[in-house]
Design goal:
The protein is α/β, with parallel strands linked by helices. Helix content is 43%, strand content 14%. Strands 8-9-10-11-12-13-14 form a seven-stranded parallel β-sheet. A five-stranded mixed β-sheet has the order 2-4-7-6-5, with helices on both faces. The N and C termini lie far apart (57 Å).
C-alpha cells in the first residue's frame, strides 16, 4: 500500500472511532497520523525499513504498528474489527448537512440506523426528534437534507478527485507497460465539484494494463476500444483513456476538455495530431499555451502569450489562522512554528470574536491573554512577522463585533458572517455594505458562507458589494478551505474590474490546514489571477507598511 492508501485507512479508523463519543481523542490521533502520512516525502515502507517511522510527527507506537501491518499485509485487523461494528452504508449519512459523526453514532446506537433510507424512515415516523441533541427542528432539517443529498448523489469535492487520481497514478507507476499517465477531466481543470476522475494512459500494451487495473480498482467495464470505466474507493467512477505514446498529448487535451474549449482550439487552427505532449499541439498551431484551470471556455485562446498564473510557492505568508484560543486545534506556538517551518515570511492570527460563542469567541480580556501568548513566541519564530488580527462577526445590523477601542489594537480585521444566513437578499446586502463602511475592516471573509455540497451560500447583490469593497479598499479573501472555496472563481474577474483586491487564506484551524492554501490557489488560477494580483505574495515589510497605513488612515 502506498502512502495515500495508508492515509485513507487511518482516516477510516478515525471516523469509526469518532462514532463513539468516548473515543474522540483516539480518533484525533489517527486523523493526525493520516495527515502526517500524506505529507511524507517518502513512502511509509521506506521509513519502516530505516526505523524512522516512529520519529515522524503525529505517529505514535500504536499508529506505527497499524501502518506497518498495512504495509506488510495490505490490511488492518483493527480496521476490520471496527467495520464489523457498523453497517457498510453508515458514512453516507455524512452527506446530510450538520449531521456529524457524533450524531450519526447516536442514531446508530439508539435506533440502529445505518443508511439514508433507514434515516429517512425514522425521521418520517418521528423517531429522531426525541433523541438527545436532536428535536423536531433537527428532524425536519434532516428530512430536507436527505432530499438535497439525493439530488447531489455522485458529486464530490475536488480534493476527493485529486486524492483518488494521485492514488491511482501511484499504482500505475508500477506497471511496466505504461509510459506515461496523467489525470485529466474536471479534476485537472480544478473544478470545485466533480463527478468522476479521468486518467489518460500512454501504453503500447493496453490489454496488459487493463489486467493490472484489477489490483486497485473494481467493476472494470470496457466502454470502447480506447476507454475503460472502473470504480475506486467504493464511491467514485474512474475513466481510463488509452493512447499510443505518440498520441498522448492529443488525448490529454481532449479528455481534459471542456468540449467548448476543444472546439475553440480547433477553430483557431489547432489540430489533434501526433504529439507526445499538449504543448506540442499548441506550438504547432501557433497558439499560446492555456493552463488546464482556464479551459472552461475558449477565452484564453485569444491571448498572444502564455500568462503565468499564481502558484502556491508565490505566497509569502497568510492570514485567517485560528488557534486553541477559539476553535482551533493547535496552540499559538504550534501554529506559528509550523508557519515558520513552511517558510512563511509572515502569518496573521485571527481567532473568533465574542458573538461566535459556539467557536470560543474571545472576550477583550481573553484577547489580552492571546496577545501575550503571541508576544511570548515571536522571538522564537523570528524573522517571521506575526500580525495580530481577528475574524470578527458581522452582526445582523452590519456592525462589527468589537468596539472601536478594541478594533484599533488589531493589525488586521477579517469581517465574516456566521449567523442569520436566511436574511432576504436586500437585507443581507445592506448588512455587508454597512460592515464595509467600518474603517477597521481589512478583509471580507468567506463572502457567501457556502459549504459545498451541504449549504448554499446566502443571497447577496455581488455588484453592490464589490463596488463598495473596491471604494473602501477592503480585500475579499479567497478562502481555500475545500468545503468553501469562497469567493467563487466565477465572480473574481468582475470584482477585480470594480477595484477589489484579494488574499488567498487557508481558514486554518490546525497546522495541517495550512495546506488549504493549495486549494485556494486553485481557485485563483481558475479565475486567471497572477502573483501580482494577490496581496499575500507581497514581502513582509510591504504588507506591514500597508496594514499600518490602513490603520492610520
Amino acid at each position: 500500500m502506498n502512502k495515500f492508501d495508508i492515509a485513507r485507512a487511518l482516516d477510516d479508523i478515525s471516523s469509526y472511532l469518532e462514532l463513539s463519543e468516548n473515543n474522540r481523542f483516539r480518533a484525533l490521533a489517527f486523523e493526525r497520523a493520516a495527515h502526517s502520512i500524506r505529507a511524507l516525502d517518502a513512502e511509509p515502507a521506506d521509513l519502516i525499513a530505516s526505523g524512522e517511522l516512529v520519529k515522524t510527527p503525529g505517529i505514535g507506537k500504536a499508529t506505527a504498528a497499524i501502518i506497518e501491518e498495512l504495509v506488510r499485509t495490505g490490511e488492518s485487523k483493527y480496521l476490520g474489527e471496527l467495520r464489523t461494528q457498523y453497517p457498510s452504508g453508515i458514512f453516507e449519512l455524512l452527506r446530510i448537512p450538520k449531521l456529524g459523526l457524533k450524531k450519526i453514532g447516536i442514531l446508530h446506537e439508539k435506533l440502529g440506523i445505518g443508511n439514508l433510507d433507514e434515516l429517512e424512515a425514522a425521521a418520517r415516523d418521528g423517531r429522531v426528534a426525541p433523541l438527545p441533541g436532536f428535536g423536531p427542528k433537527t428532524q425536519q432539517y434532516i428530512l430536507s437534507g436527505i432530499e438535497k443529498a439525493r439530488r447531489r448523489e455522485s458529486h464530490f469535492l475536488l480534493p476527493v478527485g485529486v486524492d483518488t487520481g494521485e492514488q491511482i497514478r501511484e499504482h500505475l507507476a508500477a506497471i511496466e507497460e505504461i509510459e506515461d499517465a496523467e489525470v485529466s477531466g474536471s479534476v485537472r481543470r480544478r473544478l470545485e465539484i466533480i463527478r468522476n476522475v479521468n486518467i489518460v494512459i500512454a501504453t503500447r500494451d493496453q490489454d496488459a494494463v487493463v489486467r493490472a487495473l484489477s489490483k486497485f480498482v473494481e467493476k472494470i467495464e470496457r466502454i470502447d476500444d480506447d476507454t475503460v470505466k472502473a470504480f475506486a474507493r467504493n464511491e467514485i467512477d474512474v475513466w481510463f483513456h488509452f493512447a499510443k505514446p505518440e498520441a498522448f498529448g492529443a488525448t490529454l487535451l481532449v479528455t481534459t476538455g471542456t468540449p467548448e474549449f476543444v472546439a475553440a482550439f480547433l477553430e483557431r487552427g489547432g489540430k489533434l495530431g501526433r504529439a507526445r505532449t499538449e504543448k506540442e499541439l499548441f506550438d504547432k498551431a501557433g497558439i499560446a499555451y492555456v493552463d488546464p484551470e482556464r479551459r472552461e471556455n475558449g477565452d484564453d485562446l485569444k491571448r498572444k502569450r502564455h500568462r503565468r498564473l499564481i502558484e502556491v510557492s508565490d505566497l509569502r505568508g497568510t492570514f485567517h489562522v485560528h488557534t486553541t484560543f477559539s476553535d482551533g486545534r493547535n496552540t499559538v506556538h504550534e501554529m506559528l512554528t509550523t508557519a515558520r517551518d513552511r517558510g512563511f515570511e509572515y502569518v496573521g492570527i485571527s481567532d473568533h470574536s465574542p458573538a461566535a460563542f459556539y467557536a470560543g469567541g474571545l472576550s477583550v480580556e481573553q484577547l489580552k491573554l492571546q496577545h501575550k501568548e503571541i508576544a511570548a513566541n515571536e522571538r522564537e519564530v523570528a524573522p517571521m512577522r506575526v500580525f495580530r488580527g481577528t475574524e470578527a462577526d458581522i452582526l445582523p445590523d452590519g456592525t462589527i463585533d468589537y468596539d472601536e477601542k478594541t478594533l484599533k489594537k488589531f493589525d488586521f480585521v477579517i469581517a465574516s458572517i456566521h449567523s442569520r444566513f436566511q436574511m432576504p437578499k436586500d437585507e443581507m446586502t445592506e448588512r455587508m455594505l454597512r460592515a464595509l463602511d467600518n474603517p477597521y475592516v481589512t478583509f471580507l471573509g468567506h463572502l457567501t458562507g457556502r459549504k459545498l455540497l451541504s449549504r448554499d451560500g446566502y443571497s447577496v447583490d455581488f455588484e453592490r458589494i464589490f463596488e463598495k469593497a473596491g471604494q473602501r479598499g477592503v480585500m475579499i479573501e479567497i478562502n481555500g478551505n475545500p468545503n468553501r472555496l469562497d469567493l467563487d472563481w466565477r465572480h473574481i474577474r468582475r470584482a477585480m474590474d470594480l477595484g477589489v483586491g484579494f488574499a488567498i487564506t487557508p481558514d486554518a484551524h490546525s497546522i495541517h490546514e495550512y495546506a488549504a492554501l493549495i486549494s485556494g490557489t486553485w481557485v485563483a488560477r481558475k479565475a486567471g489571477l497572477t502573483p501580482k494580483e494577490i496581496f499575500n505574495t507581497k514581502p513582509a515589510d510591504e504588507v506591514a507598511a500597508y496594514l499600518k497605513a490602513r490603520r492610520a488612515g
